[in-house]
Amino acid sequence: MAARKYPLDPLAKLREQHVDEATRELAAAVRARETAEQHARQAESDERAAEERARVVREAERAKLEGGELTVADLLRADAWGVAVAAEKDRLAARVERAVTAESEARTGEAQQRTTVAARKADAEVVEKDRANWTEQVRKDTLGREEEEGVEAWRPKQG
Question: What residues contact 33, with CB distance under 8 A and at least 6 apart?
Answer without folding.
Answer: 103, 106, 107, 109, 110
